[in-house]
Amino acid sequence: MIGILGGGQLGRMLSLAASRLGMRTHIFCPDAGSPAFEVTPHRTIAAYDDEAALAGFADAVDVITYEFENVPAATAAFLASRKPLRPGPDALAISQDRLAEKSFLVSKNIPVAPHRAVTSLMDLDAAIDALGLPAVLKTTRLGYDGKGQSVLRDRAEAAGAFAALSPKPLVLEAFVPFDTEISVVVARNAAGEVRAYDAAENVHRHHILHTSTVPAKISPGLEKHAAMLAKVIVVALDYVGVLGVEFFVVPGERPSLMVNEIAPRVHNSGHWTEAVCLTDQFEQHIRAIAGWPLGDPTRLADVVMENLIGEGVLNVPGGLDRDTRPHLYGKTDARPGRKMGHLNRIVRP
User: By C-alpha distance, which of 216, 208, 217 is closest to 307?
Assistant: First the structure.
């Protein structure tokens, strides 16, 4: 029995993958309308700080995982004291705080954007002096899909951005003049086996992932380097499960890589694996946390994954062809900016 914290589309897809392997899943989520509840009868609807509910959940499962990185630290610690929590609390704590994440990466000699911690307007002024403009001011926690950040192009924008962003502290990152963004999904199991998927080239619209294209238009050497860095990260974190690593490709005589962020979970830019890999990222995560050998991540065809955002999902039935595999998340309210599903389009030679 796999316990999953979070009832969104990632929890739903993890539950479906577990079912294919003959396992059961128990979803814990405070939102009674969560789409993951539709694919398993085992559920707990309660707040993440409800210790009585958490204890009952832990008693009902064999291993616990999560579909989002903002699991409260107290919740992670409480559950980890009762059942195996994979990935573990230390990896979660590092990846849910941008400053902790950057400090960890720097300690492993992995390049990140120049940055400064910001706790006051005085700190922000000094950070701008050090890093220059443009720069990106971000919350250290709870940011995703462009939320919790502001691009500063003029010093006059600093005070307003500082006041608007919360929670604090914040971090100012130097603007990176990158050519493209790529990501690598990597997995590690408790026995130390590590497997990485091919790099995906990502395009964002309005700060939300629009497409992931595989293969990425980068050199074979750069792709191998990205996979190597991703593997260094999961080993250094003593990580068990699937991890997403986002990179900037920085132009130059020899293009280089800079880590943008890491995500301790299955990743939106890895959805393409469903259509063209023997073992997709969701099954790989279940294998890893359940103590199974990892599956083969080899890509069998070229593919483009496209997110379906808001009412874009309504166009799916008329837009399908033989090379397109749809995956809809069962959400009833197609709000602007909400991820409703995705398409995987096979690219034939």
Answer: 208
